[in-house]
Write a structure and sequence with these properties.
By secondary structure, this protein is of the alpha/beta class. The protein folds into two domains: 198 residues, no CATH class; 149 residues, Nutrient germinant receptor protein C, domain 3 (GMP Synthetase, Chain A, domain 3, 2-Layer Sandwich). It has 13 helices and 13 strands. Strands 1, 2, 3, 4, 5, 6, 7, 8 and 9 form a nine-stranded mixed beta sheet that branches. A hairpin with a 2-residue loop joins strand 11 and strand 12. Belongs to the GerABKC lipoprotein family.
Length: 364
């Protein structure tokens, strides 16, 4: 028995040519692009593939491939791609699903539900929208000396680390349930220079792209209203003179006001503790009174901006903040008497921002 065990251990430690052949045949899909064109119901699917060539023990040489296919659904398109190229298509390391605007208007989550049937699919990949020609973008070899996949994912990673954008992980949309997440905001890319740039978020209502977008500053405020921690987020604004602040801590609460079975108002309370970087005042010293006035001015400016964001959401009937879910959870009897899709655009929703400046500078 000891000899058999010893022989098995030796076999496990030995490396043969079989693993090298397997690595050489793997084609790792880094980015999947999906769109439709015109009235054609076929999906146009683009793949940015990282393959390992000259595979050997310890690594190999990576190379990028751009491949397109079409099908009645994502699974069909992927099957056709597997038949058309040598190698084994693997979505184990896919980092980004990028959808086009036409596809975004056709309830994209219903089409993407099939992704869960891929046994090795990583549902932690980003989901984002590109407002341009997907094929033209993903066919690029390099953008600013980076592969197109590294460039796009790095933009998302960097802004996510700064806390300025929602995560938009595919896992949330496919496994989070459908009743209350049909209204959402996806990070949006647009053409820029020889590549692309992040340009805020695209608003979705009942799973469909509304055609309405929020810019980067409005997206940041929306993300804070959605409960983002705000650690180190830079906000630049203007209340007469310009100011720059770093949010060190952010707290958000919802207050649902109702009487006699009637929903009167939803208040979004935001409390920001921040460091003042620049206030536009040509003074070197700040008195306590000056800081109090600054806090009021900055709070008023951010409240005005947040109110504008809420107005845009209500005009498009996009309940991205899931306020209906909150009313249903905490006031179920009240919610049962409402047609939320009709109530949401009309109900009074008021953001209320309070500011505390942590660094006092030089006080008199």
């Amino acid at each position: 028995m000891k000899k058999i065990i010893a022989m098995l251990l030796v076999c496990l430690l030995l490396t043969g040519c079989w693993d090298r052949i397997q690595l050489k045949s793997l084609l790792f899909v880094d980015v999947v692009g999906i769109d439709t064109k015109g009235d054609d119901k076929q999906l146009n699917v683009s793949y940015v593939i990282s393959s390992l060539r000259n595979a050997q023990q310890g690594g190999g040489t990576s190379s990028n491939l751009f491949i397109q296919s079409s099908g009645i659904n994502l699974y069909d398109a992927t099957a056709k791609t597997n038949k058309a190229i040598p190698g084994i298509l693997s979505v184990l390391e896919t980092r980004l699903y990028l959808i086009g605007t036409q596809f975004a208007k056709d309830e994209p989550l219903k089409h993407l539900n099939i992704v869960g049937q891929f046994t090795t699919n990583p549902l932690y990949a980003y989901l984002a929208m590109y407002d341009g020609d997907l094929s033209q973008l993903l066919a690029k070899k390099k953008i600013n000396d980076q592969t197109v996949s590294d460039f796009l994912v790095s933009l998302l990673d960097n802004e996510k680390q700064k806390g300025r954008i929602p995560s938009n992980k595919l896992l949330y949309y496919l496994l989070g349930g459908s009743k209350f997440i049909n209204d959402f905001a996806l990070n949006r890319f647009e053409p820029f220079g020889n590549g692309a740039r992040l340009a805020g978020t695209a608003l979705f209502k009942e799973g469909k792209y509304t055609g309405v977008n929020l810019n980067e500053d409005d997206t940041q405020l929306l993300h804070l209203m959605d409960g983002a921690a705000g650690n180190g987020q830079l906000i630049i604004g203007k209340y007469g003179t310009s100011y720059s602040v770093l949010i060190q801590d952010a707290k958000r609460k919802f207050h649902i006001h109702h009487t006699n079975g009637k929903l009167n108002e939803i208040e979004i309370s935001l409390e920001f503790r921040l460091e003042l970087v620049e206030d536009g005042l040509e003074v070197k010293k700040h008195t306590n009174q000056m800081l109090t006035e600054l806090e009021k001015d900055i709070a008023a400016d951010l409240t005005l901006s947040a109110t504008s964001v809420i107005e845009t959401l209500q005009k498009t009937n996009c309940d991205m903040l899931q306020l209906g879910h909150r009313v249903a959870a905490y006031h179920p009897k009240l919610y049962k008497g409402l047609n939320w899709r009709e109530t949401y655009p009309k109900v009074s929703i008021k953001p209320n921002v309070k500011i505390e400046i942590l660094n006092s500078g030089i006080l008199d």
